[in-house]
Amino acid sequence: MQSQELLRRYAAGDRQFQQADLTGASLYRTQLADAILPSVTLIGANLSGADLTGADLRQANLIGANLSGANLTKADLRGADLIGANLGGAKLGAANLAGVVLNGANLSAANLSRVCLQAASLVRAEPGWRCAQPGSAQRGKSEWS
């Protein structure tokens, strides 16, 4: 699937995009709130400034994706692969990041308030995130290094 097809279908009211391959797609500042994108491939995609509020990104492959400044509030990213992704300044409030792999990801200035990080891996992740409510990120048995 090409990014233009996804945007055309989204504008027409379609929200179902399971397992789409959008490797390297340019989706800068796009509106994709409540999109259903489980198991989608977005390797190296540019989603900076995108609105993904409430999106279903379970098991998504976002290796090396640019999500800087993206709005992922209440998004479901359970089991997603975000190795080396740029989440600088992203809004992740109340997002479900259980089991995500954020190894080497940039989380500087990301808002992780009320985020579930249970069983998440953050090895060599760039620190510097902030929580609107200190200590509100739910870590569970996360791997932090």
Please tell me about this protein's structure.
This protein is largely without helices or strands. 6% of the residues lie in helices and 3% in strands. The protein contains one helix and two strands. It has one helix spanning 3-11, and strands at residues 121-122, 143-144. The longest helix is centred in the N-terminal third of the chain and has 9 residues, at 3-11. The chain starts with a helix and ends with a strand. Residues 129-136 and 141-145 have low confidence and may be disordered.
What are the SSEs and their pairings?
Blueprint: H1 3-11, E1 121-122, E2 143-144
Parallel strand pairs: 1-2
Shape: globular
Give the N-to-C terminal Cα separation: 37 Å
Spatial order of strands in the largest sheet: 1-2
- Proportion in helices: under 10%
Question: Got a strand count?
Answer: 2
Order of helices and strands: HEE
Tell me the structural class. Answer: little secondary structure
Count, helices: 1
- Biggest sheet layout: 2 strands, parallel
Unreliable sequence segments: 129-136, 141-145
The protein's oligomeric status is single chain
**Rg from alpha-carbon coordinates:** 14 Å
Average residue pLDDT: 89
Strand content: under 5%
In brief, what are we looking at here?
The protein is largely without helices or strands and 145 residues long. Helices cover 6% and strands 3% of the residues. It has one helix at residues 3-11; strands at residues 121-122, 143-144.
